[in-house]
Amino acid sequence: MPDSSRTQRARKPDVTAGSEVRFRRLTPRDAAELSYLELDIFKAPWSEQGLRDCLELTSVEGEAALVEGHIAGYLIVQSVVDEAHILNLAVHQPHRGKGLSRRLMERFFQRAIPRGITSFYLEVRAGNRVAQKLYFSLGFAPVYVRRNYYPDGEDALILVKKL
User: Where in the sequence is the domain holding 154, given as residue range(s)?
Assistant: First the structure.
């Protein structure tokens, strides 16, 4: 008989279970769908035009993780010579905790390393412990704190991964 004095935490249903996750390159045509996800995910979302402009740059690449034909997560990166700046990594709430962020990052590393990229940089909210845990597990380390980086005044941790 279960111990009723302990509260059991309900497991989140795995919305990707039974659904194939596919990956494809982002294009400027994805900006509208990404902007809706941004509004749902971030306190300071990118605008549709900002996303479109970013994805039109030759130094920027993006990848989408698709579940049932819809973007469940995405990664946007700007690379210059031997450095890559992770501009945005996002997973829609129903798909979090399923490893999509890790898969997007690892897929990017696999493409970047043969191109000679040896340094990876990103900013993460100082209070976003879940994202920090992921980044640390991928080999990122804190470099410094950028005070009042976000529009709401929250600090950003600047993280780097060097090969």
Answer: 21-162
